[in-house]
Specification:
The chain is of the alpha+beta class. 51% of the residues lie in helices and 10% in strands. Among the domains are: 212 residues, no CATH class; 72 residues, no CATH class. The radius of gyration is 27 Å and the shape is globular.
């Protein structure tokens, strides 16, 4: 079966080029289903070892055995890209998968967010991540498993907290504030200066700049750069996790666009590939229908969107109404935030039967009134900051205390105190000074969580920020 499928790869590639797709080479590799599960859990074929990946692996196994999920392929953008294909796939599955992967490869080569992040990290992410894993294995040999695991606990608990709007490789903040600009000369100042010509001019006074000079979103970079007693091997681990988060960010921030684009192209390639056997074509089209269906399999009701369905529907409408070149221009420039806000109309939302829902105090689910702007934001809410709460470094105090600030107004929710406390305990082990976060609870009451020890000074949250 594998040999039969692989004969279709060059034919599909030739057709894709004729239709205007442009991608870096892709290496297709059939692998056992167990390997697919491992890659899905670790995020990469070879990655740093950590207990949390084992917990995720068990969850994935349960989901697969209960029939809730099946992995046909996993793609890693790069030059070359890597596409791992499940060995259990049939011929029709693999023909569709090949066409789908070519759509992904075209997207990742041409989308600006993907290009910028790949250029800063590596176009050879599989090999790059393997280097990180070997590096961490050497640290384990040098300082022991427990010490390395504690640092990984801290780094991976913050893996969502990077700032891709700033370069991967950053300089430290300026140590001093810039000198005040000299006042322009005029006749009065010239006469005044002449009165005290004999006096020595005062030396300019340097003023130390605050750290950070503004709220800092990149917690991994800040801790790796400013932790007062962090050892070099600990810093290496934090920066390795940060690099991999930079690589993964575009995958997360363009999921609807990317999966929709790949689905549009696999459907179009299947339609125009007259070399596919009729039986395989029909099976592939059925698989396509399963992929882009609006709700979950069987009789389950879905309260979250299927990104394949939303993205595919939007791209089909854009190509139909504005043409392929206009669609490619959007594909290059947008992420999910601009794409959904600008392209999801009230008419399309109604056609797709998209809706917002609100959970009542009694636990019941209620459909919210129609409001296209609110619907767009509800679809995007979980996509901010990898879906994690927005937390920034607010202050580094004279005694070394690290003060974090949770911006509840952006994500509209409080932090879970127990989870926040656990993360702070992880961070405090590498910061080696007190660490605290200002936040709000589920009732939007302001309070602080700190490590070591816990303070819970509560008050009312102001509209302009949080009280401490």
């Amino acid at each position: 079966m594998t040999a039969a499928w692989q004969t279709y790869i060059p034919k599909l590639e030739e057709l894709a080029r004729k239709l205007g797709l442009d991608w870096d080479p892709v290496v297709f590799e059939p692998v056992p289903d167990s390997f697919m599960t491992e890659v899905a859990v670790y995020g990469l074929p070879v990655r740093m070892p950590h207990w949390s990946f084992g917990a995720r692996y068990i969850y994935q196994l349960v989901q697969r055995h209960m029939g809730y999920s099946r992995l046909f392929e996993i793609v890693f953008p790069g030059n070359p890209g890597h596409a791992y294909v499940a060995a259990s796939n049939g011929l029709a599955d693999n023909i569709l998968v090949t066409a789908h992967v070519l759509g992904h490869a075209d997207f990742s080569r041409n989308n600006l967010l993907f290009r910028r992040c790949q250029e800063q990290v590596s176009e050879h992410i599989v090999e790059h991540a393997a280097t990180h894993a070997r590096q961490i294995e050497r640290h384990i040999e040098a300082v022991g498993t427990e010490a390395v695991e504690q640092v990984l606990d801290a780094a991976l608990s913050l893996e969502q907290y990077v700032d891709v709007d700033l370069p991967l490789r950053r300089e430290r903040y300026p140590e001093y504030l810039p000198a005040a600009a000299a006042l322009a000369d005029d006749e009065f100042r010239a006469r005044y200066s002449a009165l005290e010509a004999a006096a020595a001019p005062p030396l300019p006074r340097k003023v130390r700049a605050p750290i950070p000079p503004r709220p800092e979103r990149d917690l991994l970079w800040f801790i790796a750069t400013y932790a007062p007693e962090m050892e070099d091997w600990e810093r290496d681990i934090f920066l390795a996790v940060r690099e991999e988060s930079f690589y993964f960010y575009p995958v997360y921030a363009t999921q609807v666009m990317n999966e929709g684009w790949a689905s549009y192209w696999h459907a179009r390639l299947l339609r125009e590939a007259d070399f596919i056997p009729q039986e395989a074509y029909l099976d592939a089209i059925k698989c396509h229908s399963d992929v882009v269906r609006p709700i979950a399999a069987g009789e389950q009701a879905a309260l979250s969107i299927n990104p394949y369905h939303v993205g595919f529907t939007l791209w089909e409408r854009i190509v139909r109404d504005a043409g392929l070149e206009a669609a490619r221009a959007l594909m290059r420039a947008d992420d999910d935030f601009s794409f959904i806000r600008n392209q999801l109309t009230a008419e399309l939302a109604s056609d797709m039967e998209l809706f917002r829902y609100q959970r009542q105090e009694n636990g019941q689910i209620k459909v919210a009134p129609d409001d296209i702007d609110a619907l767009r934001e509800s679809l995007l809410q979980e996509r901010y900051n990898f879906g994690a709460p927005r937390v920034t470094v607010a202050e580094l105090r004279q005694d070394g205390t690290l003060v974090l600030q949770h911006d509840s107004q952006i994500d509209g929710r409080g932090l879970d105190p127990e989870r926040a406390r656990k993360v702070l305990e992880y961070v405090q082990r590498v910061w080696r000074r007190p660490v605290l976060v200002r936040t709000v609870d589920a009732a939007l009451q302001a309070f602080e969580v700190a490590a070591p020890g816990v303070s819970a000074r509560r008050g009312s949250a102001h509209t302009s920020g949080l009280t401490s």
